[in-house]
Amino acid sequence: MALGYVRPAGSQDAGDIARIQLTTWRVAYRRLLPKQVLDSVDVTWLTERWRESIEAPPTPRHRVLVAVEQAEQSYLVGFAAAGPADEQALAPGEEPGALGPDVAAVTDLLVEPRWGRRGHGSRLLSAAVDLWREDMFGTAIAWAYDADAATRKFLGSAGWEPDGASRALDVDDLLIPQLRLHVSLADAPL
């Protein structure tokens, strides 16, 4: 079993978060997302977006958490970002505000593939659930790529289920289907 923990992200973590995100996309989603799109992502630009998210979140209920692996030295190996559901969480045709103020939306939950299956994703999700409950959210949602069986299985093992909503992301003129998963925070395991 891996030794690790989760903590709130600090601005000094932005570069590692961007690296983890880009590495994970390039490894885990290489058959899902177009190579030219993955190759064109600028890590410096991504780092600045994460720094902004950490230093100036839209609300106090928007949070970025990081997972740390402890070995001879510590490594940042994963992260989660979430906040109140906004227009990005809506399915096509849903009206703004349709999800309600008590719904948390996961925007990212990634563990670098080489650090996978060591409990980091579960620790990130558990820490997020604790914070969502503290923030008085009743439900959480997350969009998953339809072809991303690993994410759907991981969330499903924690009680998340499809809520019937679907959409397709247009990535470089390629439509990539997604489905929305949800979980009641009253029922979610810790």
UniProtKB/TrEMBL annotation:
Residue stretches making up the N-acetyltransferase domain: 23-182
Entry annotated with the keyword Cell membrane: no
Pfam families hit by this protein: Acetyltransf_1 (PF00583)
Gene3D superfamilies: 3.40.630.30
Superkingdom of origin: Bacteria
UniProtKB keywords: Acyltransferase, Transferase
UniProt key word Acyltransferase: yes
UniProt GO molecular function: acyltransferase activity, transferring groups other than amino-acyl groups
InterPro entries found in the cross-reference section: Acyl_CoA_acyltransferase, Bact_Acetyltransf, GNAT_dom
Protein name: GNAT superfamily N-acetyltransferase
